[in-house]
């Protein structure tokens, strides 16, 4: 039995603004286990290290997995069965490696794809999207419509992120750790290496593992006394902005297809191994909660399971027609031209600069 119309009320303007999901998580060691958030480089008045925002009364919130990181973890699910059949499998042969479009950092707007045989086709699809027809892009890179894309280096076309997921830990206590590297033998004492004559040489010995190296009070993870939570939003209001031009039937098929992909990704379990020292699982005592949130604030339970979402995605993909899977070559000549920039734009900019009045020299 077809499920094509099952979620049609969610595609109507009178439908929910979004679906929201909440997973309560914990480290595999238990609720009081230590987890390691990502560390970030310093910059913009940020000292570097864990991203922890302090609040009133000593409370804080620690970022465990960002929106971008979560998207990069979820999207590759469409590389494997049974999800692979839902989207075109497009790979770019770059040297001796094949990179899937589903793994490209900027999705359909990535330089790897832009500098391939798909360049002209993608450019046309982005331009069509700017004119109100997202169907051509859905035939090439439908997950770009789910996780968002910005063709920032060419057409400037943008598709909003429909699915956003973030993991945060609450009221965390920072820990530190220390370590001591001990070399296999005393290279200097055994006269296997000369005594380092200066700091530069000593640093070189240290880097190469020939002398003792202490590491004290480095990042040692956190304990989340306030719990760990994954919050995800599937924006139905943004989904309803997608269209296939003025063709109402084609627009409905497009929205159903993208919703099928989105709700399948939305209901999957993306907890698990995030990085060394951060292996999270669901808290069995606090089951997952998904709600449909309406514009007037009403909230209703959304009970579709992941298996039901997949069945819906299969039907909607069949009805819309999954795009062609293919392998294309990375084009070195296109890449050279792309890296050099647009000569026409450069010429116009140079001409404009020439017309600007010269600044007067100071007296």
Walk me through what this model shows.
The chain has 363 residues and is an alpha+beta fold. It has 2 domains: 8-170 and 225-339, no CATH class; 177-219, no CATH class. The chain is 29% helix and 26% strand. The chain is built from 11 helices and 19 strands. Helix 8 packs antiparallel against helix 9. It starts with 17 loop residues before the first strand and ends in an 8-residue tail after the last helix.
Estimated radius of gyration? 26 Å
Strand content: 25-35%
Q: pLDDT average, as an integer?
A: 91
Spans with pLDDT under 50 lasting ≥5 residues?
A: 359-363
The total of beta strands comes to 19
- Content-based structural category: alpha+beta
Give the SSE string: EEEEEEHEEHHHHEEEEHEEHHEEEEHEHH
Largest sheet: 9 strands, antiparallel
In helices, the fraction of residues equals: 25-40%
What's the quaternary structure here? single chain
User: How many domains comprise the coordinates?
Assistant: 2
Shape: globular
End-to-end Cα distance: 85 Å
Structure annotation, total helices: 11
């Amino acid at each position: 039995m077809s499920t094509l119309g099952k979620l049609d009320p969610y595609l109507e303007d009178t439908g929910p603004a979004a679906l929201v999901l909440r997973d309560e998580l914990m480290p595999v060691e238990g609720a009081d286990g230590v987890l390691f958030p990502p560390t970030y480089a310093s910059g913009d008045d940020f000292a570097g290290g864990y991203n922890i925002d302090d609040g009133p009364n000593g409370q804080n919130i620690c970022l465990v997995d960002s929106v971008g990181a979560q998207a990069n973890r979820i999207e590759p699910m469409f590389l494997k069965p049974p999800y692979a059949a839902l989207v075109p499998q497009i790979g770019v042969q770059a040297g001796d490696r094949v990179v899937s479009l589903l793994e490209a950092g900027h999705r359909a707007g990535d330089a790897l794809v832009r500098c391939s045989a798909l360049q002209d086709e993608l450019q046309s699809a982005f331009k069509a999207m700017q004119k109100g027809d997202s169907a051509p892009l859905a035939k090439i890179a439908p997950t770009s419509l789910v996780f968002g894309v910005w063709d920032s280096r060419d057409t400037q076309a943008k598709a909003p992120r429909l699915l956003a997921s973030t993991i945060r830990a609450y009221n965390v206590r920072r820990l530190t750790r220390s370590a001591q590297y001990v070399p296999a033998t005393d290279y200097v004492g055994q006269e296997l290496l000369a005594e380092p004559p200066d700091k530069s040489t000593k640093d070189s010995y240290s880097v190469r593992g020939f002398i003792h190296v202490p590491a004290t009070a480095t990042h040692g993870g956190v304990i989340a006394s306030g719990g760990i939570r994954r919050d995800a939003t599937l924006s139905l209001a943004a989904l309803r902005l997608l269209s296939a031009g003025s063709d109402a039937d084609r627009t409905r098929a497009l929205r159903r297809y993208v919703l099928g992909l989105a709700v399948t990704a939305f209901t999957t379990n993306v907890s698990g191994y995030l990085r060394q020292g951060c292996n999270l699982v669901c808290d069995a005592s606090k089951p997952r909660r998904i709600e449909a949130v309406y514009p007037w604030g009403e909230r209703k339970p959304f009970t579709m399971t992941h298996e039901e979402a997949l069945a819906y995605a299969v039907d909607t993909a069949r009805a819309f027609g999954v795009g062609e899977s293919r392998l294309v070559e990375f084009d070195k000549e296109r890449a050279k031209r792309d890296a050099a920039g647009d000569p026409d734009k450069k010429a116009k900019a140079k001409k404009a600069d020439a017309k600007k009045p010269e600044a007067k020299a100071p007296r």
